[in-house]
Amino acid sequence: QVQLVESGGGLVQAGGSLRLSCVVSGDGFSINVMGWYRQLPGKQRELVAEIVSGGSTNYADAVKGRFIISRDNAKNTVYLQMNGLKPEDTAVYYCNVKYRRYLRPFEVWGQGTLVTVSS
Questions:
Q1: pLDDT confidence bin for 19, thresholds 50/70/90
Q2: How far, in Å, are 6, 44, 72, 73, 84 from residue 24 at the CA level?
């Protein structure tokens, strides 16, 4: 079974930075896409950024130029460096991994980590 453990959320002032980490553990799987989503209060979960196995990235317009997603394949870890944080970035951030196991596609979510940006 593949599991995710997230860390790095917290409280920060507007303009500050935080880095989220997500470690993937398990056996017999190959990762296709690693990403971060967020859920703002009263809103649906939305994509923040994702990175595919070849290294290509995709960002939501709201975070382009401020957030950077990266992955360490050797450590099965994905990071989200968040710079220039704004109060509207306040949300629960979820790690998401799409992977294959025994040639079948699967998807797993982290438990979520709260990011609060004060004005």
A1: very high
A2: 9, 24, 11, 10, 27
C-alpha span between 90 and 107 (Å, rounded): 25
112: exposed, middle or buried (Cβ count in 10 Å: 0-12, 13-18, 19+)? middle
Q: Which two tokens stand for residue 75?
A: 């450590």
The whole-angstrom separation of Cα 117 and Cα 17 is: 10
Which structure tokens are listed for 80? Answer: 């989200």
Dihedral, CA of residue 60, residue 65, residue 66 and residue 72, to nearest 10: 80
Nearest to 58 by CA among 74, 40, 37, 77: 37
pLDDT at 1 over 90: no
Contacts of residue 14, Cβ cutoff 8 Å, sequence gap at least 6: 85, 86, 87, 117, 118, 119
Distances in Å between the alpha carbon of 101 and those of 36, 60, 89, 114?
21, 28, 34, 30
